[in-house]
Write a structure and sequence with these properties.
By secondary structure, this protein is α+β, with helices and mostly antiparallel strands. Helices cover about 20% and strands about 30% of the residues. The protein has helices spanning about 45-55, 110-125, and strands at about 30-35, 40-45, 65, 70-75, 90-95, 100-105, 130-134.
């Protein structure tokens, strides 16, 4: 699972995914990409599931770039804990995705195969996505 090695603060306030993406707007490394059409939090498990389905479909051919990283800690309290008593422990990490952001890129395979691989990856993500080319 993806997670930061070290953070300045262990816990973080909630940041929401409002507004358009200002960076990661174009396909930079690969030939084709998967662009988000809406904002959301994407967990490290979802990123890993999308990566695995792309790798499996391309039969380990080509190269895949993951353009997002889950660096935001999400805390949860245990079950049946009363209100108050402080903030919960860090449970998992998420990446903040904004509309217009290119999340995955792929190169080294033909367009039809890369389109199908990215569509399969989009099923694993909680955001609406579209296939883009360079």
């Amino acid at each position: 699972m993806l997670m930061p090695k070290k953070t300045k603060y262990r816990k973080e306030h909630k940041r929401y995914h409002s507004g358009q993406a200002s960076s990661l707007l174009k396909v930079s490394f690969g030939a084709h990409g998967l662009k988000a059409l809406e904002g959301s939090w994407v967990s490290s498990r979802q990123i890993e599931a999308a990566r695995r389905v792309m790798t499996k479909y391309t039969k380990k051919g080509g190269k895949i770039w993951i353009r997002m990283f889950p660096d935001k800690p999400v805390t949860l309290k245990g079950g049946e804990i009363p209100m108050g008593k402080g903030k919960g422990a860090v449970d998992h990490y998420v990446a903040i995705v904004k509309p217009g952001m290119v999340m995955f890129e792929i190169a080294g395979i033909d367009e039809a195969t890369s389109k199908k691989a990215l569509e399969l990856a989009a099923y694993k993500l909680p955001v609406k996505c579209k296939f883009v080319s360079k």
